[in-house]
Amino acid sequence: MAAKVSITFARGARRVTGSNFLITITGETTTRLLVDCGLSQGGGGTESLCESPNAEPFIYDPKTIDALFFTHAHADHIGLYPKLVNAGFASKAYATHPTAALMPVMLEDSVQLIHKDAERCHQAPLYMLDDIAPAMSRVTSVSYHEKIIVGDGVTATFYNAGHIVGSALIVFDIHGTRVLFTGDLGRTPAILVPDREVPEHIDYLITESVYGNRAHGDKSVSDAMLAEAVRRTVKNTGVLLVPAFSLERTQIILSSLETMMKAGAIPDVAVYMDSPLADKVTRIYRDSPEYLRDDIRAALVSGDDPFSFRTLKVTVNKEASSAIDHAPTPKVIIAGAGMSHGGRIRHHEERYLGDPTTTVLLVGYQVAGSLGRRIRDGARVVEINHKKVRVRAHIEVADGYSAHADRDDLLQFAEAVKPKKAFVVLGETEASTFLAQRISGFLGIPVHVPREGETVEL
To answer: Per the confidence metrics, is the pTM higher than 0.70?
Structure first.
């Protein structure tokens, strides 16, 4: 009998985070495949921080899953994986080589956040540090274009998504029907990694839509803002604070600063990368040259490290981090978290936001309710570590460093893929429906915006 194929949008539909999709193939036997198993992040407005969907049971039985495929290493795509293993998942998981290398580093960081949330909410943590190694023992590293045989007539193949190092589009060939999951799609041109690929002969496209209704600024404009912020900081003998995500955004900023210093576009100034996580991630970038853009790879091979320069100081332990306070100005401090909701950046903001010679350069998305969003929106007083802090610093927003596809990139990708039907996920409802309308209206492709928990038969 002919196999039936369905997709269950377990999590990540009409929601930016929590990527988790189930493919069920029913024939003489039943095969169940998962794409991603990520944390849901952010409260969605009215949702309490202590009512997170992460604590809810999976809507499928993890024991019945035959294989799991990770698109990339951001926490909202991998962060619930140890919980899945603890719930009974005992099959193989697959990821590209850089993703497999990044996963334990990112999961260890997630454990810290998970335990802080659990303590605040008087709940049991989702998983422990000791759960990461057993989960990682089930992960098999694969290369782009390597065909993975899942079952009789069913294969999976990873392609470059152009988002972050090792990020992947995943194509499932199921008895001749080709289904493509984008994960998070990269913008073009990509900044550090090769531009995304476009797999052929796709029947069904499941596409993200994080920026489905927005366009990014140009990187060259953001680079000019960064350079001017450095020059102003040096002139005023002040401090430049750059809250940055440890995976990809920090590496982009380091690369831009390295290029500017080499060209003499900015003066020599002490730059502190105050993030143990970013340090670990940057080492993995250096160890993965074949997954980076040609110019970045060539620089690494020649010994010209694009993620380092003579004035860069990496602070790993708490003592070195605290010592930054006593370092002379001018200075640049790059630290996580990117939205200032945690991490070492909060300490520096508490100390320096009240100084008019300080500049804060916001280089990433600031979710509603975060400290970064309040600073971006012009708050004159904010609360940090239970203290009221007056904001006298100069605030700037550089929105050209995103590694995500924007509304035009997403439409162009759908046009290039030419699927018979598209499903729009991984975006807030407004962004997903906007992109769906464009795909349908401009390209004439049937589109569906599913709801969480919905199952659709292909």
So the answer is: yes
